[in-house]
Recover the amino acids of this structure.
């Protein structure tokens, strides 16, 4: 609906000569009125366009949800990496304290002629290695905090107080249930499925271009100032128009074919994302299962390394072994403890990735 104000000046009573088939004469006037046009039906094209737009809007909403899930995964993984870095620092400090104690003990024994300078040298090397481990671990904490700050959207340096999380349950025995959940819950799958549906509805709308359209037109107004004899000062009129497309240089056919090919491409993209999601779930399930199995192995590793260190310490105190055996036992225990921390937080991170892959991360 539109409103119009029109004024004209003309050669009074002259007629159009060229450029138009109308025989209406010209006259001076000033008028005002409204014009109304309404599409009655285009035999389905508009409804297909509306449906396509709604589906596209829903697809964009799913894209937003997919981005949100990406952020959640990055925050989870950065959080567990920061927890691991903090735990490694704690292990490094305990290692420095234990090796410092051994160094002081061996130094005192050497001063009393009970141990050699070689023993002192080995323990000092071991202590220096522990201090380097602590320095690297502290640097790792700063890097992990920087990554966590980026993941949560902060550009300011921060020192976080993180709470440890309990270990999640073991992964399922088979990945297929999680694959089914992923195909149902992953927003990327839903987005491309909706985009494919939208492309098909748009293709139907382009196909409907060849159909006739029926529209209504109406005008009404008045002419308060007119110089044209017997012409009334008010006017109104209405008409129904049937538009039938006959020939347009094959434009509609080209648009229909282009839309059909775009719909076929969207179908293939939807199929590809389903295959990729299935692959991602299988890979994430395998990684999480491996990480879970690793927990028992490293627990046994720590247990045996602790026992070996205790035995080596006893043998060294009794003079039955060299300092090399003792320092090696210390190195093994430190390595076992770091491996244990890595296994714990790696499983939590891999489990988050599995939850993400299956569309269950919240």
């Amino acid at each position: 609906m539109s409103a119009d104000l029109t004024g004209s000046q003309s050669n009074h009573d002259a007629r159009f000569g060229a450029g138009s088939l109308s025989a209406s004469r010209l006259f001076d006037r000033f008028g005002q009125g409204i014009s109304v046009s309404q599409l009655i039906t285009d035999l389905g094209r508009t409804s297909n366009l509306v449906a396509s737009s709604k589906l596209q809007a829903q697809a964009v909403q799913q894209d937003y949800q997919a981005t949100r899930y990406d952020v959640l995964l990055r925050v989870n993984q950065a959080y567990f990496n920061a927890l691991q870095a903090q735990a490694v620092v704690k292990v490094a400090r305990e290692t420095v304290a234990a090796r410092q104690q051994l160094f002081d003990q061996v130094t005192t024994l050497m001063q009393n002629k009970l141990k050699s300078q070689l023993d002192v040298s080995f323990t000092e090397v071991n202590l220096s290695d522990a201090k380097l481990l602590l320095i690297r671990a502290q640097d790792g904490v700063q890097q992990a905090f920087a990554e966590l700050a980026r993941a949560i959207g902060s550009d300011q340096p921060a020192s976080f107080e993180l709470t440890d999380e309990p270990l999640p349950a073991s992964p399922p025995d088979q990945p297929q249930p999680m694959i089914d959940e992923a195909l149902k819950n992953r927003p990327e799958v839903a987005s491309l499925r909706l985009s494919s549906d939208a492309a098909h509805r748009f293709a139907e709308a382009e196909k409907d271009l060849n159909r006739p359209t029926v529209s209504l037109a109406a005008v009404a107004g008045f002419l308060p100032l007119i110089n044209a004899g017997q012409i009334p000062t008010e006017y109104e009129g209405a008409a129904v128009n049937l538009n039938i497309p006959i020939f347009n240089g094959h434009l509609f056919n080209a648009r229909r074919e282009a839309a059909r090919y775009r719909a076929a491409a969207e179908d293939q993209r939807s199929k590809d994302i389903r295959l990729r999601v299935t692959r991602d779930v299988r890979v994430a399930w395998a990684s999480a299962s491996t990480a879970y199995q690793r927990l028992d192995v490293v627990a046994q590793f720590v247990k045996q390394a602790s026992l070996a260190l205790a035995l080596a310490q006893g043998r060294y105190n009794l003079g039955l072994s060299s300092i090399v055996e003792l320092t090696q036992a210390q190195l093994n225990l430190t390595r076992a403890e770091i491996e244990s921390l890595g296994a714990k937080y790696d499983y939590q991170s891999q489990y988050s990735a599995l939850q993400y892959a299956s569309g269950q991360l919240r």
Notes: The helical segments are 45-111, 117-151, 176-185, 187-207, 251-317, 323-357. Residues 45-111 form the longest helix (67 residues). The chain has six helices and four strands. Strands lie at 2-8, 28-41, 213-227, 234-243.
